[in-house]
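Sat 14:20. Reprocessing the chain from the morning session after the first attempt stalled halfway. Input below, unchanged.
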Amino acid sequence: MFLLVALALGSCMFGGVSGTEFNPYTFQSRHFSYFEAPLIGVQLGPTRHTPDPGDLQQWIMQDQKLLAPSATSRWDLSEGNRNGLPTSYGPAYPLRQAMQFRGDNGDLTWLSWSESHPKLARVLWPRIAWLGQQELYLLVPDLLALAQSASRQSVGEFTATCDTWLEEHLLEAATWLEADDQDERSAAVRVAAIARPWSQLERPTDATGTPGPPPAEPSDAPSGASDGASDGASDAPLPPLEE
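Finished this time. Tokens:
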């Protein structure tokens, strides 16, 4: 009995695990939390999830309907915390950090940009979503910087600028992966650079540029509680980069 009480107290005091996840298919974020037994790391009880809505995510998925519907859903780790340990950062952190960035006036930088350039946003966010879906989050900050510098371009020029940049950087990533003996990953990245599959995520528009009907709601995949990230089914994403 004493050991059980000590384990329960220790778990409450030192076994808390929490963090944030991001879904690149729905652009939703959520917090997770659970308890684990100290020292041995065994999870005790279920993982609790609570929504973490954001104005930019809502603008992308609810107001403007920028992305084509997808039946796939996957939650990627953004930040994770264990009591007494430094914060760990997951693959989705670069995108979540950018989406939460605020300028000197306190406004969300990329929400303001999207509202000011709605036609360019319809080009940009499907490409950002595709990078997230393929777990290529590390390319997101540079693509966003490119988009900001090209804000005065026409839609056609902006599309060509983004696609040329993606092609060049995917081929660079493929070369690096090949040198790291990740041949399957390298081949998939090379194919994507040529096929440009991100265009399939763009919402069709009518003659006035108005997006089509809203996307269907995807179904969440089962949650994995060991590290707080939920890995669901995928429509053949590229294999993740190895650490």
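Residues 1-13, 214-243 have pLDDT under 50 and may be disordered.
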